[in-house]
Each structure stands twice: as structure tokens, then as C-alpha cells.
Amino acid sequence: MSDSDLEPDPFWSARLTLDERGGPALRLPKERARWMVEHALDEAFAESGAAGSEDTPDTSMHRRVRSFGWLACAAAVLLALAGGAFAALRYWSGVARKPPTTVSPVAAHTPATPPSAASTTLAPAPLPGPAALPQSTERQEPRQTPHAEATSHQAPDDLLQAANRLRAQGRFAAAAEVYALVYERHPGSIAAYTAEVARATIELEHRDNPHLARTLFTRALRHHPSGALDIEARQGLALSLRDLGDNTAEARALRELVAAHPGSPAAERARAQLRGLEGRAR
Amino acid sequence: MHVPSERDQLRPDPRVALAAQGDRAATQGLLLELLPRVRNLVRYLASGDADVDDIAQLTLVQLVRSFRTYRGEGSLRAWCDRITVRVALAYLRRRRSRERQTCELAPELYAVSSSSEQPDDYTLRRQAVHWLDELPNEQREAVVLHHIAGLSAPELAAELGVPFETARSRLRLGMNKLRERAARTQGKP
């Protein structure tokens, strides 16, 4: 690049500079930086300690937050089945789609969310607030293996909670393993259905495994075509197929989503995606 | 405009060897030090602020995984930048393929500086990334990788997976558009 036209002048030198201090990223409060580092360490070290773990580095916190909405739905379903009428009422009135601390007693106790930047910086705070920050005492506890957690809690909803905790820690391979245990030990139960959808989401969003995600979403839909999580399962199936590059099957999944829930926001997004697919096909 | 620190140039950081052996405290210290740089580079590459922390988080995980392969050849920060670029570009391309919308920044934000940073630098860089946000992705990547991450021309072409002349053309077009944009805003040629 010896062409001088390509070399920036001092005007640009002041603006296109990389260092640790002056932006352009919005400022990060120290507590939030520590949270990010801790979770990165947890995830990387958990993987290195878990034989055969093959998580891909996708810990998108937006996705994570969105996925906790799914788990909130799942927890609400379990609560409803257990007679938790209040939680069920909130779920069906749509509150369950808010961050899990508003609905799910499971997620509310997990260190899932980083400290918010909103109160101290200009950041538009895409992440939930500091209420769910991991407590220092939790950090000092020795880590359990997924199987240790699983064997100490045999009931399906306890297993789900264990999986949710692992997921909240960013230990996605371990969480997927425990979700799979729920399915194996309690096949046909609503807990197995919930675990199946949650595991599929992990495979899609955090382990870069759309093949397995497609299989799991498909199985969940086959067993519970009108289940409480069928919108999420249909969306997940469509996304899996998109990642696999199967436009025809993706379009079919999107049409089925629209047909099953024509008035939902998910259907609106599905229609938009369908238009895009059809436009590219022409 | 790649700015290595003096210490980085002088001697290898002993914490890197510890991090390669899985020492959590050493790794933590390095990550906390590198995180602001990672986030700044990510913001140069990503349109809008919404994805910055997601990508930074992925990069941190990748850095932890990669410490064991770092041989101490060259600057730690340059090594960190290369990993950041790869993680960010992979993320952004996957995201674009899903055609997800980016979150727009409220216009008043970039005029506000934080308490602990140089207000002038911060404001200028925020202004620059808003201009970068208006570039096509290909041109933006070329400008950022060359002028900010310090990649040479062959490295740039290799990183983007395009012929040398294509990379050069993207870079030229991108800088021309930035200059035009700056001129419209500030009367600067």
C-alpha cells in the first residue's frame, strides 16, 4: 500500500487509532469487564476440563438473553404443571418472554446476567441489570461436574435447574449433557420436551452444530406439535436449516410457523424472511 | 496507527507463559488488560454498538484457548488483534448471513465522553466509527484491517480472501468515502 492516496493524514490518525484507552467502544464499567473475563475463563477452562467437549466460541450474550426467555417459558410450563397458577398466568399473559428474573425462579437464581452499563455509562445496555450478578460466595464454591450435579438431583425439574445453572455459567457443553440426561431419564415427559428444545438451542447458538439442532428441534415438534415451546422450536428449526444452507426446507419450516401462529410476531418475521428467500430464488 | 505499548515492544509478558499453563490469575490479568483494546477494535469492525460485547466475549474465550499456542514472537497486542479480527469477522459474516438488523446508536451519544477517557480522542473516534458505519462492509473491513489493525497489503488480501488488487481497491474506495463524509460534516477535505 505504498500509494499515498491510501495513507491517512493526521486528520485520520486522530480518528483511526487503536489502543486501550480512548474508544471508540463505549466505556465498560470495571465490574462488567470483570464479569466478562470471569465468564470467558469459566467457559474456556470448563471446556479444557471436560473430555470431548467441543463447544465453539459462540457465547453471544444477546442470544443468551434471548435464550433465557426460552428457559423462562420452560420453567413456567413446569410451574404450571406443578400447580403454579400464578406463574402460569404470567406466562400466558406474555410476561414470560421478559428476562427470566421476572418469571422463572430457576433463572432468577442463576448468575446469568452481567452488570448493566446503563447506570454508569452511555452504553445502550443490551444486557440485563446487576441484580443477577454472580455473588462472590458463588464464585468461591468448587465447581461440580455436570454429572455430579445431575446425580445429586434426580427429579426432572431439578435436572433442568442444574442444566440451567450450567448454561448460565456459560458451560454449554455441560449444560447440553444434562439436558440430554433429562430426555434420557424421563422420555415423554414435559421436562424432556423442555430440555430437548433448550439443548437444541445450545447446539444451534453456542456450539455451531446446526445438524444436531435440526434433529432435536424436529423431534421436539414431532412429539409436541402444539407444545408450549413450538414457536421457539419452529424458529429454531428454520434457523438451523438456514445455517445448513437448505433454503427449501427453511422456507417450508417458516410456512409451517406462519400457518401455526399466523398472528404472532414470530410469524411476521417469518413472512419477511420468506419474502427474502423468494426474492433470492427469482 | 497500530499502537503497541513500550512494554510490549521490550520484553514478553511473563504472565503469558503462566496463562499458557492454565494459570487462571495470570490469564485473568491479561484479559482485563486486553479487553478494552479488543472492544475498541471490534467497534471499528462492527456496525453499531449492539454486537460489541458479544464479539468481545467470544474473543476473550478464544484468547484463553490460544494462549498455549502463543510463542512470544511479535507483539502480544498484535497477536491479540489478529485473533480479535478473525473472531469478529466470522461473527459478523454469520450474522449478516442471517440478515439480522443492527441496533442504531442514539445520535446524541457520541458527543458524550466518559469520565476516565480522553474526551477529544473519544469523541473523534466515535465520530469516525459513525462514518465507518456508513461504508459497505467490504470497504470498512479493508480500512480497519489496514489502517487500524496494521495488516500489510498481502496480509489484508489473505485475511479477506480476495486478490491483492481487490483489497487495494476496497481500501482506496473506503478511504475516499470517509474523506467525502468528513468533508460534508466538517468542511475537511
Structural notes for this entry:
The complex is a heterodimer of chains A (282) and B (189). With 282 residues, chain A is mostly helical. Chain A has helices spanning 10-13, 30-49, 61-81, 85-92, 105-108, 136-140, 146-152, 156-168, 172-185, 190-205, 210-223, 230-244, 247-260, 265-281. In chain A, helix 9 (172-185) runs antiparallel to helix 10 (190-205) and helix 10 runs parallel beside helix 12. Chain B folds into 2 domains: 7-111, RNA polymerase sigma factor, region 2, helix turn helix motif (Rna Polymerase Sigma Factor, Chain: A), CATH 1.10.1740; 115-189, Orthogonal Bundle (Arc Repressor Mutant, subunit A), CATH 1.10.10.10. Chain B is built from 9 helices and no strands. Chain B has helices spanning 6-10, 14-20, 24-45, 52-66, 76-97, 119-132, 137-148, 153-160, 164-186. Chains A and B meet through helix 1, helix 2 and helix 3 of A and helix 3, helix 4, helix 5, helix 6 and helix 7 of B.
> Distance N terminus to C terminus of chain A?
40 Å
Overall geometry of chain A = flat
Compute the number of strand runs of chain B. 0
- SS field, number of helical segments of chain A: 14
Q: What helical percentage do the residues of chain A reach? A: 55-70%
H/E topology pattern of chain B = HHHHHHHHH
What is the domain tally of chain B?
2
Largest sheet of chain A: none
Count of strand segments of chain A: 0
Look up the CATH topology of the largest domain in chain B. Answer: Rna Polymerase Sigma Factor, Chain: A
Number of helices of chain B: 9
Rg of chain A is: 21 Å
Overall mean confidence score, pLDDT of chain A? 67
Low-pLDDT residue spans of chain A? 50-73, 75-145
Terminus-to-terminus distance of chain B: 20 Å
Structural class of chain B: mainly alpha
Oligomer: heterodimer
Strand composition percent of chain A: under 5%
- Uncertain residue segments of chain B: 100-119
